[in-house]
Amino acid sequence: MTKFQYSVASSLDGFIADEHHGLGWLRSRSGDVLPIADAARAEAGERNVWIVGGGPIAAEFLEVERLDELLVTYMPVALGRGRPLLPVATATPRFTLVRTTPFPNGAVEHVYRTG
Length: 115
Known about the structure:
Structural class: alpha/beta
Strand order of the largest sheet: 2-1-3-5-4
Distance between the termini: 16 Å
Domain Bacterial bifunctional deaminase-reductase C-terminal: 43-107
GO molecular function: 5-amino-6-(5-phosphoribosylamino)uracil reductase activity
Number of strands: 5
InterPro entries: DHFR-like_dom_sf, RibDG_C, Riboflavin_Biosynth_HTPR
Order of helices and strands: EHEHEEE
Shape: globular
Number of helices: 2
Pfam families: RibD_C
Radius of gyration: 14 Å
Strand content: 25-35%
CATH topology: Dihydrofolate Reductase, subunit A
Helix content: 10-25%
Number of domains: 1
Protein name: Dihydrofolate reductase
Largest sheet: 5 strands, mixed
């Protein structure tokens, strides 16, 4: 079954970009999310669809129940200020941790299932 996945790198303090939207610390389509998601699912067949574009787009997919998993890689840095990981308008149901993978560089990936 096709899954919609939000894969993102985050600083340890929960930011995905610095206050100037910069991604220097890390070495599409546009329009209404629902028809884009449904078209992507049809095109994907049994393959997964990765949602790339930052927290706001992932939050839109979550709001229309088209986000199945969050793949968050926490990097061993703290930014202090910046953009939130998943800027939702209202509280979400609790996510379920599926797996955790540590990497030699200190990064840790957590995979969460939604709903």
